[in-house]
User: What shape does this take?
Amino acid sequence: MKIKIFLPLACLLGIMLVTQSLQAQYARFVESGVVTFEKRVNMYAKIQSRFGKNRSSFMEQAFEQYKRTQPQFKTFKYNLAFDGSRTRFWPLDDQTAPSGGFFGDDPSIDMGNTIVTDLLAGQSIGQKSIYEQTYLITDSTRRIQWRITNETREIAGFECRRANALVLDSIYVVAFYTDRIPVTGGPESFTGLPGMILGVALPYENTTYFATAVDDRPVSAKELEAPKKGKAVNYRELRTELEASLKNWGEYAHPIFKAMML
Assistant: This one.
């Protein structure tokens, strides 16, 4: 009688192990498609850190007015098209949310960047605008020293692993990538992990980028086309120009400068 009970259990366990093995063996990998990202900026925290505790009474009143009329989080939608060797990150055309007045027009909140990255050549072309000036930045991709951890979370239906890094010497970055999309790209200029980056958090910048959907499909050449308009510079030239143009802005210029270089 014991044998009759034991054998079905053993068979069931064997079937489960074989099923799991087959699922792992035939797991589908996404090699091209479009990822939709939602960028969220905690405006209340951003404004607090931007103007500090010593802001004037005018700034205090403006901030209180902002909180009465505007939500805490401001959101932006972006797409990231990718194939095996190239990615293109760009803002969606329907971003028509109100600016939020004095604070909402700050370029450090969002610049609507378009960035094309050639992953094989290690080169990127980015179109970034600050006030009236648009720049076309061509340079090598940023080399990021990632530290991969054992922490995981699910994003847009994909299990992702966490990695941490420090960029521009002071900006702490938390990223989540999936090896089910074997492309070393990600939103903005974040690259270099062994799979697609589907989540980025900049805790001290009060900003996150998280994928909300992945459309698994072939992408056209137009979807991967590099931007062409703007003043041609590399990042070193951009840094020199920004330092010269914002030198009289004091501490107010620091977040703008950081966002432009990021």
Observations:
- The first strand starts at residue 33 and ends at 42.
- The helical segments are 2-25, 43-51, 57-69, 101-104, 235-245, 253-261.
